[in-house]
Every structure is written in C-alpha cells, then in structure tokens.
Write a structure and sequence with these properties.
The protein is of the alpha/beta class and 1089 residues long. The N terminus is likely disordered. One of its GO terms (molecular function) is glycogen phosphorylase activity. It holds the Pfam family zf-B_box.
C-alpha cells in the first residue's frame, strides 16, 4: 500500500502543474509554451483523466483537479441518507487528506484486476462495478437511475433528470471523495481559463495543418479523414473523397481533432466515438453507422430506423473467394498466434512435460494447392479475417492433396498425400447444408423456358474450417465441398444382383473430390477436372443464394435479386471457377425466372476475375464436345453470352472480322473450344493482374482487344503475403527484434517497417539482425545434416531457390552457375572463394518430363560436388525433398540469397520473393513479376538485378534467339554444357541429359543462355558484398524496411475498396466475457416493440 500511495502522490504532483499553464495565459505572458513543455506533455495536461479527450466544459474540484462536466455526471455515486458522513458544501472540504486512501478495498491499480473494483467508502454503500477509461483510469459508473429512454423504439421522450441529493463524486486522480450539496455539480466552479486554453491550443494546431494532396501550394486543411489518415482542403476532399460511394462512410473530423487522434494511441473501435465507455451495440440504417445505447437515450437517432448490430452485420455485403486451391499448411501455431494464445499454450504444454514444437511437427500440412496460387488464397483468407471483412473461402476438400515427393536415385517419385488419415481436428462437417449438383442430362424447351433434365446427381457435403483474424475476435469460414453419392441405388441393377456395380458407381461419383490435380501452370483438359470445377461453383452458388434469401426473410412478396450485387461479391481466383458465370445465369433465368438482360446485368456486377498467368499453355480452353456432354445447358448459355458479346463488337467494329475472331469466347482453330479467360473477362465487372508488370502485359498484349474495349475494367492488385505466418510464426526472433525497435503495430500495418530505415546505421541493431539470421542458419543447418547426412557450414552463404520446377522459372540457369562455381574451384583450389550452400527445392508435375529431368540433373550435379574432396566445405548442393509450407517456414528465415530468376515477362508476380525479402534475404533476380516493385520500393541498388527486361525479350523474339551464339562465345558456358552433355555428372548413363541440352539449344523459349553471362557477373557482386558483413546487413535492413507494401492486408484492402465495394475495419468484436448489459437491454426493448 505504501508503494501505491507513492504512485498516487507522484501522479497528483505531476498533474498539479496545470495551474502553471493557466497562470501564464491569465497574465498574458508571451513566453512560448513550447519552450516550457513538450508538445505531447501539454496535450496530456489538456485532457480529461476520465474520457481521455480534450476538456469540454471543465469544472474545478476542491482538490484542484479538473474534470469534464459530462464525465462528472458519469462517475457520481448516490449515498444513503442515514449513512452519509457529515461534510460541508461541495465547494468546501470533504474527507481528510488520508481518509480517501481507504475507500477502495480492491486496488484500482492492480494489473491482475479483472476490470471491476469495489467502492466501500460507506458502511452500507453497495458494491459498484467500475469501468476503465481509454487512458487507463478506472472510473465509477453512475449509481443513480438512468434517464428515461428518448428513442422512439423505447416509447418515451424526456430530458435528463436533475442530479439527486446525497450524491458524492470521487476524483479520478487523487481518489478523494467529495459530497455534493443541493446544487449538485453546479456547486463546482467552471474552469473558464482552462476551457480557453483548450480552444486556443486546438486553434493553433489547426492553423498549421495543410492539405496533403495539393500539388503546388498546399491550401489550409478543412477536414481530416480518420480512415484514410489524410488532411484535405475542400477542393481535394470533393475530388478525392466523394460524398457518395464506399468512402461516404468514412469519418471526417476537424483538422485539430484529426491531429490529436494521430498522436494518441488508437482507441478500440468497438466503443462509441461520442461515449467512450459504451460498446457499439446498434446500427442506424439512415446514418449508416454503428451507435451505442446512450446515443439512443439522448435521442440522436430518434426518427431513424435502428437495428441490432449483430442483425445488421448479417445484412452487410459478403465477399466470396472462389478457388480450387487453398494451400493452408499447418493450422495450430497460426491459430495460437492470431488468438494471442501462443505463450499460454506453450506454458501449459511445458507444465505437462511436453514440447510444443514436437506437437506442431506432428500436424499434417493441408496441401490443397500446387503452389503460389493456393498459398495466395490462404494468405488472403487470413487478411480478410484480420481486416474484419464478412468473407468466405470456397473450394474442394480433396482427400488427397498435392503429392508427397520422394527423391530416389535422384529422380522424383510421387506418393499419395493421405493428409486425412488421422482426421482433421480443424474442420466441422455440416451435413444440414448438403446440396445436389447435376451433371450430364439433356435440355428440354418448354413454354416456361429451358429445362435441364435426366441429370446425374452428386451431393456436395460442406466442411467448415475457422479462419481467425489477428487479435480482433473475428473468425471467418473456409467452406470446402466433398463429393458424396446419393443414397438411392439403381434398384433395377440391385434386384438383378449387380450390387457390386452399384457400389462402384457410387465411388465414381465420389472421385470428384478425391485428389487435387497436380499440374501448375499447365492446362490438362480432362473430364474429371471439369467436373471438379463445376462441382465447386454449383454448390457454392446454391449456398450463396440461400444465404442471400435468408437475409430477405420478413419481406413480403417474391425475393428480388436487384440488390444481389450490393450484398454479394464473388472473386474468381484464376479461370478454374469460371463456370460460375454461366451457372449463375442458369439459376437466375431457369430457376428464379429473371429475364435474360436483368440476369446478365446482375451477374456482371457480381463477379470479378483475377488472372494469374500469361503462359499460353496455362490458359483453360474446354472442348465443345466435352461441355455438350457434361453440361449441355451451360454450353447453350455460353453460346448466348458469346452472341451478345459479338453483337456488341460488331456494332463498334463492323468491318473488323479478325477482331471478332480474336475476342470470341469460342475458338475454332484446331477444334472448337471455349476460352475460359475470355468468358471471365466478359462476365465480370473487374479484371486484375497480380503485379504491375503483369497487369500491363495483359492489358497491352494478352487481352489487348478487351482492354481497348473496356479500359476501366482492367486493374492491378499486386500480390501480398500475411506477416502473421511469414514473420511472427516462422521467424519469431526477427519479429521480436522489430517489435522492440518500432513497436508491435507493424503486425497489422506492415508499412510501419519503414521506420527501420532510421536504424540502418545503428551498430547495435545491425549486430542484432545479423545474430538473428545466424541463429536461424544454425538451426536449419542442424535440420539439413539430420535429414540429408551432409555437413553444412553455417557461416557459408545460404543461396536458396525454392518453387515449382518449371522451365520458365529457370532452375537450369542456377544449375549452370553451380557447375561454373565447381569448375572454378577445381581449376584453382587455393584461390579465395566465398563458401556457399546452394539449396534448391520444388515439385514437378508428374507428367512434366523436362521438369523431372531438371530435378535429376540438379541432384546429379550435387552428388558430384558434395563428394569432391577438392571442393570441401566451399560449395555444397542440397535438393530439398518434398518442399511444402511447413518446410518453407524453416528455410526462408535462414536464407541469405533469394533466387528469383525467371525470364522477364513470364512470372505473373510470385510471393516467395516477398517472403524472403521480409525475412532478411537479399534478392538476385530479373525485372519480372513483383521483383520490379520490390526494386522500386527498396531501390535497385539494394537488390542484385540482372538480365533482359521485357522489351529486350520482345526484341529478341522478333529477331530470333540463337542459343549457339552464346555457347560459342562464352567459354565457361561451353564447358558446363559440354560436361552435362558428355555424361560427366552421370558417367553410368552418359546420354541421360541429352534431352536437356537439346532443349537448351533448339527449343528454349525462356532463353537461359542469353542471361547466363550477366547472371554470373551479378553473382560475383553478391560474393563481394557478402564478405562485408556490416554492409550486407545494412542492405538487409533496407530490404526489410521496404517490404511493407507486400502485405496481403494491403492487397485485400485494395480489392475491398476498389473491386468488392466493402470497407475494411479494425472493429474488434467484444469478447464473450465482456459485459453486454446495454446490448441485452436494447434487444429486449426491440422485442417488446
């Protein structure tokens, strides 16, 4: 208690200096207050200790402390007449200087306090719960009865009642209890001087604020948007912040208030902006904003329609992310981090004598994706939950995910990924929402319209997986569909004894969700794949429409779909779910009986499409014959969509038949096919690429005709990664170091990493960053030595190239560099050489012969290099077996050099490059995909950029690429190719790699030889810098500081505001244990109405 008294005394003395400020201003002293007080300290002096805002109508208590008049009303406590101690008037003395210290029996300062205190100043005074104001001071709620309700739903209007007699007030700073006389709070003097100080201070702050968007001479700011965090003048506000559209819901405040809100710690958005201690529990439909119970009592929304916040949440626009791949990885640790439970769980497991890391290693990776596309979808789900969006992920619950890769004698061998063999504790089956999906059949024309009849039915069983947001009590849902056969057997077959065939037919139906197609960036037109694509979209759209209709319950008459695009946004992740467009048209026209034009307008406003590749072999083109058999009604709808589309083209370009051929949904070269990318573009209101360079390519090259027709439809949304998994989870040492340097807010606002630029020359920070990297390398070295029986030098440079194996990603270029380094060491063993451990990993599609040959070549080269005693520890080559999410979480934090070396113009974006950058690896790469924007953010001087640019590649394509020219003029390249071709790395099968060298000379679309020389020179620059640890680490810090743009939170915010028409929020839903009296009371009033 003595220490507590000392703390209170210091707090009182600290705030007693407020009288000095008022004295200065009363005497008209011209001494600058800035020289006497720091700006932050002065702002704190001018804030009420209860509400944490600037004083409004302050009153002066007898203890010399000030408080807002409204706040004083909130902390009054009524005392019983019989027990009230003798005291003078409110303006006189209260209890003695020390009596007040014994009033509270539970310490108001206790950190273990649950948020409730007890008030025991009088013998029979009731115990009253206390609450906590935003600045941390606990205050008492009024014990007097609440004033009668003023809202029209509560059926009474009136004014606030007078303060009852026998009330007392406890000063929130010194905790002295003061009794009120019959004048109540009017007995305290109003501090007009302090009120004047506040007004003048706010005016002086506002006068200095200028518009942040004026280009030449900034005008004076008139408002500040709290969501945009920007000060606007009137012209810029009208131009950049229109009063209509999604920005209309933003909160505009006077510049002075905006300046203050920037400097203070952010308030929980779950509390009312006008009543700091009230939770938002209702929603005003007219004002389109959440309100609290006290707002209703004060009659501010008396004539408006007000609904419960939970009910309105269900009416808000929902986002549906359709993807055939969700590469989730492991869930346990990610969930603990997002819920803030990791430390508690670690301690609990330790107390049981177990190791949490061992438990985490037991979890299977949910490998329901091939690579970047599926992993991007998983990052997006995390960000949508963290940003508070009402969003759902829809996909397929594959029984077997991406295959497990085994390397046997240097060859890739595929094994089934039976990830569900022990069950999945994170999912919940929802059989009550099982839905039918139809295939095959025929189309009948009738007076009512077309009917799809005689179909085969497969049932779609949903499995829900929770997706928790980061520390915001928001949990979204990923719903994955599993195929089930109907229970009704073919009775005729059953009766004649063909029971076995009936059971086998059931298995055929359930094969739809049996296995993930393992092809990445390659289209394979198989019937089962088309069944999978239609299966997921048909079940999902039924679910979406059911949810939309449920939101319309209570409305009389048939359901209107006019508001469907205002309540539903569907994002197509590549062309795989493209059949959703004709399926939604079928539902609207055939089932809901909408006319074609209305249905088409609604459909286009609902869908948006993300393109992920420009490689022609990856673009889906389904044969007409297959569609006619499997989905006959949908083919009719596609034909009609195409007819309307071509009519529009013909009207605009009447003589341009070639343009009509290029833009048609139906391709006729080499057999009729439906171009699914064209269908997505025509049926969507927005089309985006996933990096600036990729978006420009699809606008100016791949989909140029469509871009010229509707330029406003095409956008860019650069990909991002979630910092929760790819920093907090996988690299806790670096995450903690950053938090110590700049605070923890960067986890939800990665742009704050820019603050690290201030520490680039800080020796202590440089040393700490270097130590974290070395610790990660030593840990990963132990893993490699255990798994691959190869001794690793942890001080060597970890040169990492991990991604799907594909010719355009140019693992062959890296392999040629390995051979070149090997030859240099062999040529001059005593020369200085920077030790390097080259780590390559990735899976090849089972049917991709060249990719499998590349893996064999790399493993063969590695076997020779690792066993050569001349090389020793100077160079090691490791091929990571079965590269997956959980393995990426180990290797990425330990990486020094990240290889991103695809041919310019072939990689859409890439996200691995972002993960390495965030975790302190430097990048060697071409100007391709997101590398371009990484170089813009960090500066090209802080990356190792080499090779041809997009325009150089185009010029070479026009002139013709001759690999032999480079082979003949570059001696080291010639030596390496000759070794591969002659069987040096595979003496038992000298002809083994002939296919590889033949491809490099005659069929190399990705021009490996053209970039070889520049690549080798760039690697020499890497070696030179790596020898200077301080300069290397400084560049690492600059890269980490520049990685803020590549957060998936930023990407999803762009999608939400520019494509989906929804607003992200940092609203933190109150936890279940938080008091909900106001919400319950309001709900009861609504029910009684």
């Amino acid at each position: 208690m003595d220490a507590e008294k000392d703390d209170r005394w210091q707090y009182t003395q600290q705030h007693s200096d407020l009288s000095n400020i008022t004295t200065y201003l009363e005497l008209g002293d011209t001494i600058s207050l800035r020289s006497e007080f720091k700006m932050d300290e002065m702002e704190e002096e001018l804030k009420c200790p209860v509400c944490g805002s600037f004083f409004r109508e302050p009153i002066l208590l007898p203890c010399s402390h000030n408080i807002c008049l409204a706040c004083a009303r909130n902390i009054l406590v009524q005392t019983p007449d019989a027990e009230s101690p003798q005291s003078s008037r409110a303006s006189g003395s209260g209890l003695s200087d020390y009596d007040y210290l014994d009033l509270d029996k539970m310490s108001l300062y206790s950190e273990a306090d649950s948020g409730y205190g007890s008030y025991g100043g009088f013998v029979s005074a009731p115990t009253t719960p206390c609450q906590k104001s935003p600045n941390g001071v606990r205050v008492f709620p009024p014990a007097v009865p609440q004033p009668p309700a003023q809202h029209h739903l509560l059926g009474h209007q009136g004014s606030l009642p007078p303060i009852p007699r026998n009330s007392c007030i406890t000063c929130p700073q010194c905790h002295r209890s003061l009794n009120l006389d019959e004048r109540g709070l009017r007995g305290f003097a109003k501090n007009r001087v302090l009120e004047g100080v506040v007004d003048r201070y706010q005016q002086s702050k506002a006068a200095a604020l200028k518009c942040q968007l004026c280009e030449k001479s900034p005008k004076e700011a008139t408002v500040m948007c709290e969501q945009c965090d920007v000060f606007y003048c009137d012209p810029c506000r009208l131009r950049c912040h229109p009063p209509r559209g999604p920005l209309a819901k933003h909160r505009l405040v006077p510049p002075a208030h905006g300046r203050v809100s920037r400097r203070t710690s952010p308030r929980k958005i779950s509390t009312c902006t006008e009543h700091e201690l009230e939770n938002l529990s209702m929603y005003c439909v007219q004002c389109k904003m959440p309100v609290c119970y006290q707002c209703l009592e004060e009659g501010k929304h008396g004539t408006h329609e007000v609904k419960a916040l939970g009910a309105m949440w269900k009416l808000h626009k929902r986002v549906y992310y359709l993807s055939l791949e969700f590469y989730m990885g492991r869930t346990l640790q990610n969930t603990m981090i997002n819920l803030g439970l990791q430390n508690a769980c670690d301690e609990a497991i330790y107390q049981l004598g177990l190791d949490m890391e061992d438990l985490e290693e037991m979890e299977e990776d949910a490998g329901l994706g091939n690579g970047g596309l599926g992993r991007l979808a998983a990052c997006f789900l995390d960000s949508m939950a963290t940003l508070g969006l009402a969003a759902y992920g829809y996909g397929i619950r594959y029984e077997y995910g991406i295959f497990n890769q085994k390397i046997k004698n240097g060859w890739q061998v595929e094994e089934a990924d039976d990830w569900l063999r022990h069950g999945n504790p994170w999912e919940k089956a929802r059989p009550e929402y099982m839905l039918p999906v139809h295939f095959y059949g025929r189309v009948e024309e009738s007076k009512e319209g077309a009917k799809w009849v005689d179909t085969q039915v497969v049932l779609a069983m949903p499995y829900d997986t929770p997706i928790p947001g980061y520390m915001n009590n928001t949990v979204n849902t990923m719903r994955l569909w599993s195929a089930r056969a109907p229970n009704d057997f073919n009775l005729m077959d059953f009766n004649v004894g063909d029971y076995i065939q009936a059971v086998l037919d059931r298995n055929l139906a359930e094969n739809i969700s049996r296995v993930l197609y393992p092809n990445d960036n390659f289209f394979e037109g198989k019937e089962l794949r088309l069944k999978q694509e239609y299966f997921v979209v048909a079940a999902t759209l039924q679910d979406i429409i059911r949810r939309f209709k449920n939101s319309k319950k209570g409305f009389s008459g048939p359901v209107s779909f006019d508001s469907f695009p205002e309540k539903v946004a569907i994002q197509l992740n590549d062309t795989h779910p493209a059949m959703a467009i004709p399926e939604l048209m079928r539902v609207f026209v055939d089932i809901e009986k909408l006319d074609w034009d209305t249905a088409w307008a609604i459909t286009k406003r609902t869908f948006a499409y993300t393109n992920h590749t420009v490689l022609p072999e990856a673009l889906e083109r389904w044969p007409i014959g297959l569609l006619e058999t499997l989905l006959p009604r949908h083919l009719q709808i596609i034909y009609r969509i195409n007819q309307g589309h071509l009519d529009e083209i013909s009207a605009l370009f009447p003589e341009d038949m070639d343009r009509m051929r290029r833009m048609s949904l139906i391709e006729e070269d080499g057999g009729k096919r439906v171009n699914m990318a064209h269908l997505c573009i025509v049926g969507s209101h927005a089309v985006n690429g996933v990096a600036e360079i990729h978006s420009n390519i699809i606008k100016t090259d791949v989909f140029r005709d469509f871009s010229e027709l509707e330029p406003e439809k095409f956008q860019n949304k650069t990909n991002g990664i979630t910092p929760r998994r790819w920093l907090l989870l996988c690299n806790p040492g670096l995450a903690e170091l950053i938090a110590e340097a700049i605070g923890e807010e960067y986890v939800k606002d990665l742009s704050q990493l820019q603050k690290l630029n201030e520490l680039v020359d800080d020796d202590t920070f440089i040393r700490d960053v270097s130590k974290v990297k070395q610790d990660n390398k030593e840990k990963f070295s132990q893993y490699l030595e255990k798994e691959y029986m190869v001794e690793i030098n942890p001080s060597s440079m970890f040169d990492v190239h991990v991604k799907r194996i594909h010719e355009y990603k140019r693992q062959l270029l890296n392999c040629l560099h390995i051979v070149t380094m090997y030859n240099r060491i062999r040529k001059n063993p005593k020369a200085h050489f920077v030790p390097r451990t080259v780590i390559i990993g990735g899976k090849a599609a089972p049917g991709y012969h060249m990719a499998k040959m590349i893996i064999k070549l790399i493993t063969a080269v590695g076997e020779v290099v690792n066993k050569d005693p001349v090389v020793g520890s100077k160079l090691k080559v490791i091929y990571l077996e079965n590269y997956r999410v959980s393995l990426a979480e180990k290797v990425i934090p330990a990486t020094d050099l990240s290889e991103q070396i695809s041919t310019a113009g072939t990689e859409a974006s890439g996200t691995g490059n972002m993960k390495f950058m965030l975790n302190g690896a430097l990048t060697i790469g071409t100007m391709d995909g997101a590398n371009v924007e990484m170089a813009e953010e960090a500066g090209e001087e802080n990356m190792f950029i080499f090779g041809m640019r997009v325009e150089d590649v185009a010029e070479m394509d026009a002139q013709g690429y001759d690999a032999m020219t480079y082979y003949q003029k570059i001696p080291e390249l010639k030596q390496a190719i000759d070794q591969i071709n002659s069987g040096f790395f595979c003496p038992k099968q000298p002809e083994l790699f002939k296919d590889v060298t033949n491809m490099l000379f005659n069929h190399d679309r990705f021009k490996v030889f053209a970039d070889y020389e520049d690549y080798i020179k760039c690697q020499e620059k890497v070696n030179e810098l790596y020898q200077n640890l301080r300069e290397w680490t400084k560049m690492v810090i600059k890269n980490i500081a520049a990685s803020g743009k590549f957060s998936s939170d930023r990407t999803i915010t762009d999608y939400a505001t520019e494509v989906w028409g929804v607003e992200p929020t940092d609203l933190k839903i109150p936890p279940p244990n938080e008091p909900r009296e106001a919400l319950d009371e309001t709900a009861r009033a609504l029910r009684e109405k």
